[in-house]
Amino acid sequence: MTNTTPSPREQLSRQLAEAVAEALRVDLARQDNALLVVSGGSTPVPFFEALATCELPWERVQVTLADERWVPEDAVDSNARLVRAHLLQGPAALATFVPLTTDNPTPEQGAEAVAERINGLAWPASVVILGMGGDGHTASLFPDSRELELALTTGAATVAVRTPSQPQPRITLSADRLHQAHRHLLHITGGDKRAVLARALSGDDVRELPIRAFLACPLATYWAP
Ligand SMILES: O=C1O[C@H](COP(=O)(O)O)[C@@H](O)[C@H](O)[C@H]1O
């Protein structure tokens, strides 16, 4: 007999998907469109798949990313590719997806065009779902990024980011733009990330652990082992 009990991570993804879908429904009851900002990486895949099955007027939902590697959309490590493959499926394919890259060779050259595109969306976002790396980065706000200070302080929508610890240049939504959302959720899994979050909660230096910039949003944490 096969074991059909969902794993804690699957249960977490389902709970997160239901919470996000309900938040979108609430906002869509009083406005034409609602914007969802998602993160990339490996953690959100089961959440994307669970959200894609939720009943929503998807044609009124807009989706964009908290950050992106400056790679072609069909690259294996493209967050846009991940969203298209796992979230924009079935009825959810009717959502409007706005990616964060252009054909320009660098994010510095493309950032303005991306900001223009992004500014056409239904801000403030209904929900921002943040991820977090083992170094305390969230979106592409990395502790070792040259542009961390700029990304934390600018009023612009996007910032091109160069980070010694990362192989590709990136583009990120600014902290200001992310802060403007109505709701902030953190989706993380595993003991290592729980320990990083505990460390973040016990100090206040945002440059050491950039996730600290969002702890007081308030930030609802979805964690599973
Ligand atoms: O680089 C990134 O990493 C974080 C976390 O990724 P994960 O693979 O540990 O889930 C993610 O939140 C961010 O959007 C992504 O660009």
UniProtKB/TrEMBL annotation:
GO terms for biological process: carbohydrate metabolic process; pentose-phosphate shunt. Pathway: Carbohydrate degradation; pentose phosphate pathway; D-ribulose 5-phosphate from D-glucose 6-phosphate (oxidative stage): step 2/3. One of its GO terms (molecular function) is 6-phosphogluconolactonase activity. Its EC number is 3.1.1.31. Residues 9-216 form the Glucosamine/galactosamine-6-phosphate isomerase domain. It is an enzyme of class 3 (hydrolase). It catalyses: 6-phospho-D-glucono-1,5-lactone + H2O = 6-phospho-D-gluconate + H(+). It comes from the Bacteria. Pfam families: Glucosamine_iso. InterPro entries: 6-phosphogluconolactonase_DevB, 6PGL, Glc/Gal-6P_isomerase, NagB/RpiA_transferase-like. Belongs to the glucosamine/galactosamine-6-phosphate isomerase family. 6-phosphogluconolactonase subfamily. This is 6-phosphogluconolactonase. It comes from Halomonas daqiaonensis.
